[in-house]
Automatic annotation (TrEMBL):
Keywords: Membrane, Transmembrane, Transmembrane helix. This is G-protein coupled receptors family 1 profile domain-containing protein. The chain crosses the membrane at residues 29-47, 59-77, 108-127, 147-173, 193-215, 257-277, 297-318. It comes from the Eukaryota. It comes from Caenorhabditis nigoni.
Length: 335
């Protein structure tokens, strides 16, 4: 990673002509309000699922990352417009020096969210299976294993983000955009992880999640039945309390699966837009001209804000009444 030791002096007249997209206007204020609203709504979801953290750790983590995306949008665009309006060299230099850290956070989200969504989809798929199957794969269906799995994945995500951004070089510096490109590691093992293993893992997680989401939709009628359960009591779900826990009814489980799959398909839409329309125009200084890079990045970041806020609205309108966040093998669920 190369560092610029001297303070950069910005030519604001040139900047106003080079990237007028950052000239503040009323639209920026409205969009900033949307992002702030998305941040607040994500915080409300975090507060909701924090009460059953171990059972709902995946959705809790997803809400936390949604909140981070709203903050990143505020940092990347409304705050940049504010710096543009104030013509502050100091604030512009602070943004420039923080670019590597921001890239690291974004790389963490790019890895963590697809894996997290895959866990959520796999869990909902297992809800359509028998108690025996859910117990065999309890890593995805029981409180403590799910919590450990998510924590380990977050730890791996941090390592992935560090490896992905460790050798970044500032290829092009400008207030409008800063192009960061990774140089190859001299270590072949690390180079293979950075260039092949990490992108392949992310790329495979998306179609795997999509396939299991479709299978889950087809199997949703099997909730409470599974594949030839051996213990009928395990599938006779009632709305009664047993040892302080609540036996959840089948209709609530089905409704919760549909809600979480809706969350997933919003994520899938975001990923399709990224790989199909955004990545090819933003990765690399020669991928497109500066105006296109800025606008494609803006479209994608704001769509992330909209989808993040939409997740809360979907939850509030359709899923907030007795949504099931945990359906372990013994059919004792958490509402």
């Amino acid at each position: 990673m190369s560092k610029v030791s001297s303070k950069i002096v910005y030519n604001w007249t040139d900047i106003s002509q080079t990237c007028p997209e950052f000239s503040p206007n009323y639209v920026d204020i409205i969009l900033a309000i949307f992002a702030i609203a998305g941040f607040i709504l994500s915080c409300m979801l975090i507060a909701k699922f924090r009460k059953q953290l171990k059972g709902s750790v995946s959705v809790f983590s997803l809400s936390f990352v949604d909140m981070s995306y709203c903050l990143l949008y505020l940092y990347n665009f409304p705050l940049k417009s504010l710096v543009f309006y104030l013509e502050s060299d100091f604030m512009a230099n602070v943004r420039h020096k923080a670019q590597h850290q921001i890239e690291t956070i974004e790389e963490f989200g790019n890895f963590f969210i697809p894996i997290l969504m895959m866990y959520i989809v796999l869990e909902k798929f297992l809800w359509t299976c028998s108690p025996r199957t859910r117990y065999s794969l309890r890593l995805f269906t029981m409180d403590r294993p799910k919590f450990i799995l998510t924590a380990v994945t977050a730890g791996v995500g941090i390592v992935v983000a560090v490896i992905s951004t460790w050798n970044l070089v500032i290829l092009h510096v400008h207030f409008c955009d800063v192009v960061l490109l990774p140089f190859a590691f001299t270590n072949k093992f690390l180079n293979t992880i950075q260039r092949i293993v990490i992108p392949l893992t992310i790329a495979l997680s998306v179609p795997i999640s999509f396939i299991f989401a479709l299978i889950t939709l087809c199997r949703i009628g099997k909730v409470g039945k599974g594949e030839n359960p051996v213990d009928q009591e395990a599938v006779n779900l009632g709305n009664e309390e047993v040892n302080g826990a609540v036996r959840v009814i089948t209709s609530l489980v089905k409704k919760s699966i549909l809600c979480m799959l809706t969350f997933y398909f919003l994520f899938f839409l975001r990923e399709v837009c990224y790989f199909a329309f955004v990545r090819q125009h933003t990765k690399g200084v020669f991928a497109s001209n500066r105006h296109h890079r800025i606008m494609y990045s803006w479209y994608y970041d704001f769509s992330s804000v909209v989808l993040s806020g939409s997740r809360y609205l979907i939850y509030y309108i359709f899923c907030r009444h007795e949504v099931v966040v945990n359906f372990p093998p013994n059919a004792l669920g958490s509402l």
